[in-house]
Specification:
alpha+beta, 8 strands, two-stranded antiparallel sheet, single chain, repeat, about 130 residues, 2 domains, oxidoreductase activity
Amino acid sequence: MKIKISIPTERIQNPIISETIVETGILLNIMVANIDSTYGELIADVKDSRFARIKKALESRGAIVVILDRPIHRDEEECVECGACISVCPMNVYSFDETWSLCVDEKKCIQCGMCIKMCPHGALKLGE
């Protein structure tokens, strides 16, 4: 299961992720991480059966944990297949096929939102 872990500004200097992994013994597959001195956010994959335990441990350290279960949805009528989403997607969700039609592999989506921000026609949004 894909999860988003947000680390509040006041906790950014603490090794929240490391402490949680050591305490629980649960390994996280970190897919994307954006951490600096003012902000921390990670997208990670964790086994479904381990989610409740790792969530509890992270939240006890001040992190906010959210399940990412809504892939990006593309409005095919609004999309002009310009490829702007291809250039910014860190997970290669978007690609062109041999006829230059836009292809979407929703299973790869980590809901980072980069494609939504980049789309000049507003054709992308989080799924329902």
